[in-house]
Amino acid sequence: MTLDADWAERWVRRTAVAVADAKDELTELDRQIGDGDHGENMDRGFRAVVARLDDAAAQPAGADERTVGDVLKLVATTLMSTVGGASGPLYGTAYLRAAKVSGRPQIDPPAVVAVLEAALEGVSSRGKATVGEKTMVDAWQPAVDAAEAAARDGGSEVDVLRAAAEAADKAATATIPMVATKGRASYLGERSAGHEDPGARSTALVLGAALAAALSGPASADPRGAA
């Protein structure tokens, strides 16, 4: 399976659909321990990203081959300009850092790990968060750790993405009993326990979409813009 710019675009379009489908869930999770706008913000942001991808597809192709980084940079700039709250800056920085390490037509397993590591670094630095504070970092870090292990074991690109996606999903669920010590949820103190972190759950959706995009073929016709 080749992970190229077309894969990156499928990843983004599948993320948009996954976020739209989970918008109410993300909103409810955020209502319990945050501002209650995570689902709406993420949905609005990725709808804007898909619109920009559609606009770009309608333009004449340039002479240079499109890279994975080109797609991720478009995601970053769009999210930063359209998403309010913490989601836009955090995810925007994650995609921007990932774009900087993926400026090539195709990426191999070590490069997939580098993309995920860069995204984690972006989230951590922008949010000034570390593991154990009940934030999206608690899903990103296990995803990166699992991806690194899969790559060391000689796994393919799909193996690396599968490891990351599965780890993020489990880690998001594991935030439920945690007490938040960072972000708005930290204002609740002990009352933040018993609720899943919305950013960790959206991280699992994003990484699940990356895996699904790698397992799928060329873009198919989806009325919501999914591949």
Describe this structure in words.
With 227 residues, the protein is mainly alpha-helical. It has a single domain, classed as Serine Threonine Protein Phosphatase 5, Tetratricopeptide repeat (Alpha Horseshoe), CATH 1.25.40.340. Helices cover 65% and strands 2% of the residues. It contains nine helices and two strands. Strands 1-2 form a two-stranded antiparallel ribbon. Helix 5 packs antiparallel against helix 6. The protein is globular, with a radius of gyration of 17 Å. It starts with a strand and ends in a 12-residue tail after the last helix.
By CATH, the architecture is named: Alpha Horseshoe
Integer count of domains: 1
Distance between the termini: 16 Å
The ordered H/E elements are: EHHHHHEHHHH
What is the CATH domain class? Mainly Alpha
The whole-number mean of residue pLDDT values reads: 90
Overall geometry: globular
The name of the CATH topology is: Serine Threonine Protein Phosphatase 5, Tetratricopeptide repeat
Runs in which pLDDT lies below 50 for 5 or more consecutive residues are 219-227
CATH level-four homologous superfamily name: DhaL domain
Order the strands across the largest sheet as they lie in space.
Answer: 1-2
Query: What is the tally of beta strands?
Result: 2
Q: Which range best describes the helical content: under 10%, 10-25%, 25-40%, 40-55%, 55-70% or over 70%?
A: 55-70%
Q: Mind summarizing the main beta sheet?
A: 2 strands, antiparallel
Number of helices: 9
Percentage of β-strand residues: under 5%
| Coarse structural class | mainly alpha
User: How much is the radius of gyration in Å?
Assistant: 17 Å
EC number: 2.7.1.121
Organism: Promicromonospora kroppenstedtii
Pfam families: Dak2 (PF02734)
Enzyme class: transferase
